[in-house]
Amino acid sequence: MANRDAPKSVIKRLPVYLRILDNLIRRDIEIISSRELSEETGFTAEQIRKDLAYFGAFGTRGAGYNANFLREKILKIIGLHKKTSVIVVGAGHLGKALTRYNMIKNPYVEIVGIFDNDPAIIGESLNSLTVKDVNDMPEIIKKQKIKVGIVTVPEEHAQSVVDSMVKSGIKAILNFAPTKLDVPEGVQVHNADLTIELQSLIYYASTAED
């Protein structure tokens, strides 16, 4: 089902389609057209059809898509048809917030560990988890065969943390540290810089005042 040739931009849009489908199914909507998906997502109907075509034919011309069927297909394409175990490294405010949110609101992942190097934080309870020493991280990654990690540590510690994660078996990293990370081929890093996002957003507010 996965298409390794699909552009990254397409892969990033699939979770958007999934979120819309989840909402539609909760509203008992069974059939949706690419035009309706376009209205819900902001992407063009042509773009949606092209994105889905990378992975097969999921709709019927003139009839649209079965919401449940398309949702199941997208889940399998992304790899969310079974829960993915994820760890968080960095138990500061952001790390804790991301952990709590994903434990409560994200049905597709299971946060199985959160780590830090601060003795004042290690041992704290976070919902059903306990913050563990980052030195325990490699063993847990290997033992539980974890492939996905979230990094919320300060910039100066990010590379060493990622090196340890990758050495232990992590293959995909969501990085919130404001720095470029060096990883070997075969490891994917997505950077989420909240400061840059906010600063770029402020542009639109400032130009509106001119």
Supply database-style keywords.
three-stranded antiparallel beta sheet; six-stranded parallel beta sheet; 47% helix; Rossmann fold; Arc Repressor Mutant, subunit A; 8 helices; alpha/beta; 2 domains; 210 residues
Task: Describe the fold and architecture.
- There is one protein chain.
- By secondary structure, this protein is of the alpha/beta class.
- It folds into 2 domains: 8-78, Winged helix-like DNA-binding domain superfamily/Winged helix DNA-binding domain (Arc Repressor Mutant, subunit A, Orthogonal Bundle); 84-196, NAD(P)-binding Rossmann-like Domain (Rossmann fold), CATH 3.40.50.
- The protein has 8 helices and 11 strands.
- It has helices at residues 8-26, 34-41, 45-53, 67-78, 93-105, 137-144, 155-168, 194-208; strands at 31-32, 59-60, 64-66, 84-89, 109-116, 125-126, 129-130, 132-133, 148-151, 172-175, 188-191.
- A 6-stranded parallel β-sheet has the order 8-5-4-9-10-11, sandwiched between helices. Strands 1-3-2 form a 3-stranded antiparallel β-sheet.
- Helix 6 (137-144) packs parallel to helix 7.
- The model has no long low-confidence stretch (mean pLDDT 91).
